[in-house]
Design a protein that fits this description.
The basal body constitutes a major portion of the flagellar organelle and consists of four rings (L,P,S, and M) mounted on a central rod. Assembles around the rod to form the L-ring and probably protects the motor/basal body from shearing forces during rotation. Pfam families: FlgH (PF02107). This is Flagellar L-ring protein. This protein has five helices and six strands; from the N terminus they run H-H-E-H-E-E-E-E-E-H-H. Helices cover about 15% and strands about 40% of the residues. Among the domains are: about 70-100 and about 165-250, no CATH class; about 105-155, no CATH class. The longest helix is centred in the N-terminal third of the chain and has 16 residues, at about 10-25. Strand 2 and strand 3 form a beta hairpin. By secondary structure, the chain is an alpha+beta fold. The protein starts with 7 loop residues before the first helix and ends with a helix. It has helices at about 10-25, 25-30, 130-135, 230-235, 240-250, and strands at about 90-120, 145-175, 180-190, 195-205, 215, 220-230. The protein is elongated and about 115 Å long. The protein has a six-stranded mixed beta sheet.
Length: about 250
């Protein structure tokens, strides 16, 4: 039997094809051709590889004084028990209402004109030697003449308009030493073949939690809000990996 070997160009083309397929995630996309993107299972947020405990500057600790024979507890909003989330694992509703509108416009105009001239009309009587050295057309009174002009005009404009209004339930993942809560919320919604993923995380004060056990996203410190997804629409809107690499490497 004779063993056929691929030519060098063929091997190179095959290698490039395999590399492009793996780089673009084509193999993972081919597994879901004709199917909707799968939803992630419910997991412990603190077990995620990207989760890290939050460390913030803390005030000195002090004990909260208690009043004997009192029916009320400091910070309580209910007669028998405070119904708001206060412990790790308690569920809290986060309301996101973002309506940003920003417009920036810059315009710059620069202009510059310069002129320089140099001549040697008298040089200890040696100015007559200049035409002999440089030629008969050389004039000692105007040997060098420089002029320059430059103009630069720049115009830039940025206009942004964003509007997001929704609410989702999360949970307390950490109670900081100063009493503040670290909250994390994640929601997935699949519509046809498009999966929308919303994540919200941040630090809130216990007193900012309303009696309905809700809190506004603008009351979260170090807030991280992400609204995206994956599926057919997101795949068509995102440039291919090869195009992104060329855009970063090509200097033109």
């Amino acid at each position: 039997m004779t063993r056929r070997s691929m030519s060098r160009p063929a091997r190179l083309a095959t290698l490039l094809a395999v590399s492009s397929l793996s780089g673009c995630g084509t193999f993972s996309n081919l597994a879901y051709v004709g199917k909707a993107p799968p939803m992630s299972p419910i997991t412990n947020p603190t077990a995620a590889p990207t989760w890290r405990p939050v460390s913030m500057p803390m005030p000195p600790l002090h004990e909260v004084p208690t009043a004997p024979d009192s029916l009320w507890r400091r910070g309580a909003r209910a007669f028998f028990k405070d119904q708001r989330a206060s412990r790790v694992g308690d569920i809290i509703t986060i309301t996101v209402n973002i309506n940003d509108d920003a417009t920036l416009k810059d315009q710059t105009t620069l202009g510059r004109t310069s002129s320089e001239s140099l001549g040697v009309p008298n040089l200890f009587g040696l100015e007559s030697l200049i035409p002999r050295v440089l030629g008969k057309s050389a004039n000692p009174s105007s040997l060098v003449s420089l002029s320059g002009a430059g103009n630069s005009t720049g115009t830039g404009q940025i206009q942004r308009n964003e509007s997001v209004a929704l609410s989702l339930a999360g949970e307390i993942t950490q109670v900081l030493p100063d009493g503040n809560f670290v909250v994390v919320a994640r929601q997935e919604m699949r519509v046809n073949d498009e999966l929308r993923v919303l994540t919200v995380s941040g630090i809130c004060r216990p007193q900012d939690i309303a009696s309905s056990n809700t809190i506004q996203a603008n009351q979260l410190a170090e807030a991280r809000i992400s609204y995206g997804g994956r599926g057919l629409i997101s795949g068509q809107q995102s440039p291919r990996v090869g195009q992104q690499v060329l855009d970063d490497l090509v200097p033109f």
